[in-house]
Amino acid sequence: MKITFSPACKLIPYLAITLLASSALMISGCDKSSQVNNQTKKSISVGVSPGPYNDLFNDAVKPELEAEGYKVKLVNFPHLLESDIALSDGSIDLTVAQHTAYMDVFNQQRKANLKPVVNVPSVPAALFSNKYHSLDQVFPGAKVGIPQDASNAARSYNLLEKAGWIKLKKGSNPITVTQNDIADNIAGIKIIEMDSANIPRVLDDLDFAIIPGSIVYSANINATKALLSETIIPDLEIMVVVNGGNENSQWAQDIKRIYQSEKFKEYMKTHNPNGYWVMPKE
Known about the structure:
Strand order of the largest sheet: 2-1-3-12-4
Strand content: 15-25%
Order of helices and strands: HEHEHEHEEEHEEEEHEEHH
Number of strands: 12
Helix content: 25-40%
Number of helices: 8
Structural class: alpha/beta
Largest sheet: 5 strands, mixed
Radius of gyration: 26 Å
């Protein structure tokens, strides 16, 4: 028995192919439209956690963005790690409180693709004491508290070397130095690594302590009482960070422009008592 197909039946495969092709074009068109919208959108969300960098954004940058027609949503996170996770999965658009070294470690460990947009003012880590008023008062056995997290610990060892209390091994990477990189404990100090957030609470029990700038801010410590402040190297300057692909978006470039504007610089001149903030090099 010979089976024959009607003309309508013969059209079915061609219709199916045409529909699939049309669907693909529609999906592709939606993707491109979505990408364009994301590059030029006027609503942005910022991951924030307690600290000076988020407050600076809120006080000096957010009002300028809103004056240009942006809607800015602040999304609170307890720690920077959580906000970076949200940033990498697209739940938020940017953060304003991390440096290159932190971003690079996050990208490596999480297989992420976070990108910097612009360097912003930074607050240095500094050496404090509630007992002594000079670096010369250090003595063998003096208890010196420093942060235990890798990034801030490295900053602390560099600052202890700047104070002349220790000598680091020649060729040590300033971003990754640890206690094992100490070549000579010149002052004979006892270094105690601990949670940086706890250092202000036990400052009376320590002889000296190195406290990150964000903790100095949140603990309401008088920054002018610092005995010595770190020299901020480029890898430790704070940046605006976005997910890869958004660094050249219109909204990211508008944020960059505002941070680099003369109006922002004038704001910093009147809101930077005693040089608390270190301005980035352009």
